[in-house]
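Supplementary Text 2. Reproducibility record for the structural model of the 409-residue chain.

All settings were left at their defaults, and a single model was retained for analysis rather than an ensemble. We include the record here because the model underlies the residue-level annotations in Supplementary Table 4.
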Amino acid sequence: NSYLFFFSVNSLTFSQIGGALLSLIYFTLHVLYVVFNMTMNRLLNRHRPSPGYAFVKALTAIVILSVVIQGSFYLSSFSQTGRFDDSFLPPEKPEEHLKPSHVAFGLSGNNPGFFDEFEVALKSVLLNAPLDRNLSVHILADNDALTALNDLYNKTDLAKWVSRNQIQIQSYNVSSRLKDMESVIMHTWEPHFPEVKTLWQVSFHTMGTYFRLFAHWFLPATAEYVLYMDTDVTILANLGELWQMIEAKPDVLFHWGRGMCAGFLAMKVSRIDEIWALARKAPLAEIRKKGRNRGIDDQLIFIAVNETHPNEVNRLPDGYDLTHSLKWHSSNYPYHEVYPEAFMLHHNANGNSPLPYWNSSRIIQQHHDSWGLMEYYIHLPWTWARFFARSQLRYDTSGHSIDIVNNPI
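Retained model, structure tokens:
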């Protein structure tokens, strides 16, 4: 009867590879069961049967039968669809001990070219969201930027985004704190640059370039680390990789590349005030001269801390510092061999042009096999991007709808 059952199930349920694999499993289990029976019968001939013998024998038969039935469903899926059906397994979930990743942008004004760049950067972040933890994107914006931001949400149908893990986008209206920010900045510059009477006397960018240094005023207390990105940065690889590096050096003030570019750096949120304090104590004027009279700007703050307290800064691999102005030289070519692990690309050559970087310079055309790869995200339609995100969902799950939150300050 057991042989008849074995062959009938096999002929009805399996074919080709799946049937062959299941046949082998059935045959092995049947042999083990026969051996078990023979062994127990021999023992019975010598000794009085144990009261639990019948129970053990029945339990063994049930276990073998359950394995056979479960195996039939599992391998039939493989033989028919080419993939194993794991729907009977508990659904895969994000690792509960892994804290969310946090990414921040600073937006000031409503320049269309600037927002075109931000749209591309945001798309690259969403498509490279961590596979094993949730993601929060924080957007620090003034009044004009918030209006343009809502228009961008509508244009891209961002509310339709569905992802493997939960993604939340939070925007913060920082307009009410702009005077406070300016006061902190000038308090830092005045002792070292007495000739500077107003912030706009030395600023080549909008106030938004300083928003990263005030992220701790707005981000929730649960945000332990935050990655700040300029709008002309494109992410190429999964953010989970970077977060492992950050958590391996959990106590440093910030993480950035050898080129010391503040357009891509991760900060410990609870220690941002310390960055300001250490910068005020540093010889800012000397550090500026050492840097060939570089600008008096937000980047000088980070460089000053790096120069005076290098043990408080973690250097990321070169693949996390692929800034065009630092890496474009022909001595670094071919770039994919010199920098085989490219995590991001930073255009940073747009200056004050009202146009997005792909329309205001020829860097993408000149470096088509490196920085030119940013075109993938530039031209990728949002409909396709949403499909790519859905293709990463866990088996037999509906995914997570994006959560968009506006936080008035």
